[in-house]
Amino acid sequence: MDVTTSKNLGGAGALLLFISVFPFVGTYFIIPLIGLILILIGAKGLADNYQEDGIFNNALYGVILSIIGIVAFAAVFVYAIVGFFTELGLANFGIADFTSFATTITTMDPNVVFNAFLNHVGYILIAALVLFIFIVVAAVFYRKSMVLTAKKTGVGLFGTAGLILLIGAVLTIILFGLLLMWISLLLIAIAFFQIRTQPTQTATPPQQTM
How many CA atoms lie within 13 A of 121 on its CB side? Predict the structure, then answer.
């Protein structure tokens, strides 16, 4: 895969991730997934062209850690919610029964509901902490990948985007951190498209001797 194809795939993937936050796009989970795959393919192509495996490897490690963190959080979150409903005797309520569920829970003893909440909120807090740690560590690997990409391609914007992404990951406890991470995706897309393809060197014809 040449540099032109790699940069176009990576840039398109970053743009797909950037626009996936919008409701009319994000509801289709396949779109951010495609964007992520395209970025990895683009990173792999650049790693091969510039003979720097760290570009792809660090990006891959970041993706794996991100997925593990999200899956772990989702699993513990669902476990806590199911446990909360079960303790209140509402485990059989479905999504269609939301109205009756709301009516039922408001008629319960507030102390019982509050105690059930306390018994399970700890799981959610622990899951959130684990997710935060995984996101920050993943961002460290993403930044390493982008710093190497900046050095090999000469596009300093990669390094800037990686730094903003890392700062945003650390600040995910507030909404501003998520905003920074979102902005970094746009910067990554721009950086990909700024990569200049190396011109093909043509062989010099041999000089004729008289």
Answer: 6
